[in-house]
Amino acid sequence: MIEGYLQRRTIRNLYLIREQTVSALGMTFRSMRSFDFKKWLEDSAPSLLSLVTAGNLHSDYDLSHEALDDALSEDYTMALHGSMGGNEKASARIDEEIGVYGHLMRQSSYARGNGADETHTYEMQIEWDVEDFILSGAIMHILCSLEELERGLLRILFLYGTERGVDSSSQKHIHPTLKDLSRSSPEWEEAENSKSLYSVSRRHAMLEAYSINAEPDTDWNARLWSMRTDRNTLARAVATLRYPFQSFLQVHYDAYRTVRHLAQEALSAQRIVL
Q1: How far is CA 34 from CA 42, 55, 78, 89, in A?
Q2: How many CA atoms lie within 13 A of 185 on its CB side?
Q3: Spatial CA neighbour of 254 closest among 207, 218, 213
Q4: Number of helices (H) and strands (E), helices first, in the chain?
Q5: Rounded to whole angstroms, what are the CA distances from 149 to 130, 181, 197, 258?
Q6: How far apart, in whole angstroms, are the C-alpha atoms of residue 207 and residue 158?
Q7: Is the pLDDT of residue 124 over 60?
Q8: Stretch 225-241: mean pLDDT
Q9: 79-90: b or e for each residue (b if 16 or more CB lie within 10 Å)?
Q10: What are 188-214's pLDDT values in tens digits?
Q11: Rounded Cα distance, 116 and 243, in Å
């Protein structure tokens, strides 16, 4: 197959994501009080286990530790690389495309050609490191947790809420349970089928119909909106964004404020205890 620039650029992205994931896992394993690489493979990637149990990895690798002082993250990282490479080599015998994959991944580890396109593609690697990989992923998961909260609140409102809000003199409170988060309703089905639940602005408009203000005029809400824009930029690969740890902390605290705000809104407007 003829390879063009866009294909090579995307393959390099896949290569970088794989490298940062493996490196992050190696450091995570190293930080555990005790860890057994073989046991982890049994649970998480059994297809890679045969290479390890057959003793085909470098004999100098430490594949387990019982104390933090005994662990080397490099050993776990290299062991994971080695088991992945061995599995891909074996798979290539029956799946030709896996063989091509291995070849292209190896090419992605160095620059090809001298043109501006290839230079840019190679420099993308410099923009990626484990720290950025972890922090950007954590921020995206925080924003996803807020979306889960808003969808859960809408599901409960469709079941128990009233669009005019409850009488302020009412003393009865609604305490949703786990079962309520899996119950459906005509309103929920309509929102899901129309894809409205996947849009922040549409979710907030639906919450507003139940007298719940999901867009307070606060600094923390403005920061979250900005971060949602950044998330879309990352998800659509429009640009590479880097976050210091302080940004992660700020998003974390702002998300907490959002949870508390929505809980207070639901209690005041609908007597629903989140």
Answers
A1: 16, 22, 18, 31
A2: 14
A3: 218
A4: 11, 2
A5: 29, 10, 11, 10
A6: 10
A7: no
A8: 70
A9: bbbbbbebbbee
A10: 999 989 888 888 899 999 999 999 999
A11: 27
Structure tokens, 152? 């859960």
**What contacts 248, CB < 8 A, 6 or more positions away?**
135, 138, 139
Category of 92 on φ-ψ map: left (φ > 0), alpha (ψ -120 to 50) or beta: alpha
Rounded to the nearest integer, the mean pLDDT of the chain is 79
State mean pLDDT over 177-188: 89
Question: If you count them, how many residues does the chain have?
Answer: 274
Contact 79, 52 (CB under 8 A): yes
Give, in degrees to the nearest 5, the angle at Cα 36 between 34 and 39: 135
- Domain locations along the chain: 5-126, 131-270
The pair of structure tokens assigned to 8 is 């090579």
Q: Largest Cα–Cα distance of the chain, in whole Å?
A: 74
Name residue 100's amino acid: V
Closest CA to 61 of 38, 39, 79: 79
Question: From CA 240, how far away is CA 229, in angstroms rounded?
Answer: 13
| Residue type at 174 in one-letter notation | I
Q: Report CA torsion sign: 180, 185, 188, 194.
A: positive
Distance CA 108, CA 102 (A): 10
pLDDT tens-digit map of 250-259: 889 999 999 9
pLDDT tens track for 50-71: 766 665 565 556 678 887 666 5
